[in-house]
Amino acid sequence: MSETLEIETPVLAGKPSPFPVPAGCYALTVQEVQHYTNSLFRFRVTRPMQFRFRSGEFVMIGLPNAEKPVFRAYSVASPSWDEELEFFSIKVPDGPLTEHLQKIQPGDTVLMRKKATGTLVNDALLPGKRVWMFSTGTGVAPFASLIRDPETYDKFDQIILTHGCRTVPELKYGEDLVASLRDDPLVGDLVRDKLIHYTTVTREDFVRRGRLTDLIVSGKLFDDLGLPRMGPEEDRAMICGSMAMLKDTKELCLSHGLEEGANNKPAQFVVERAFVD
Ligand code: A2P
Hints:
The protein is of the alpha/beta class. The chain has helices at residues 98-101, 141-146, 150-155, 172-181, 188-194, 212-218, 220-225, 243-255; strands at 11-12, 15-16, 25-37, 40-46, 58-62, 72-75, 84-90, 109-113, 130-136, 158-165, 195-201, 235-241, 269-273. It is built from eight helices and 13 strands.
């Protein structure tokens, strides 16, 4: 992990920023940026040695562009063992953070508050046969972390990463990640044995179409995968997407007999908002 994390003068757009690093924040250096669409990109930053988190948790991210910078919640998309931190972000044209964040380049500084938290963690689920990861849009980010963590494969026999987007290019981050994991030295064997990636698109032509919620209700999701309908004995679920998606998917988990869990009370499914501004 990077040793040079006590940045005194933050950098933005390749130039020193006049604003200091706020108290309680790490100043991290951007290593890599990849744009997928007009509205989606991913970036990787240095990871402080002292920073610990559980795969699936989120942190607060900001930029050194004001005395009191705007912070937004971002799921860490990299696993807890990784030497860097990865994030997958939406670009909102007038978003207080993302209109600036989308312009970051390698060498720039990103601020991160020191504490990670969240409910989309393996500890908040009881053991089970399989785990359904239901995501839409950037809600795939916490699952990008969890599917890279061997602990997820220890806990479940089958991991089904579902990802619903409006258009096909929006699936690319998840598709590239899953493809790369099949050859990964750490989790490659586990991924090939246990991970199923199920994608669907709502606003253009694709092999699978429709909202995940509709595919659950019709049973097509389960039929496509040759799996039984969800139930409390074998199935666990994690949900991350927009508020509407969370509400609808949560209701479906409840109607399939699953109970909601939390860090202090593990149960059969957990929910977390994919944060956007
Ligand atoms: P749709 O195109 O029918 O709105 P968004 O970018 O708005 O968060 O949407 C990402 C994906 O999530 C889209 O495919 C969208 O479908 C879908 N979606 C939106 N609302 C819900 C919901 N309540 N339940 C399930 N999927 C949803």
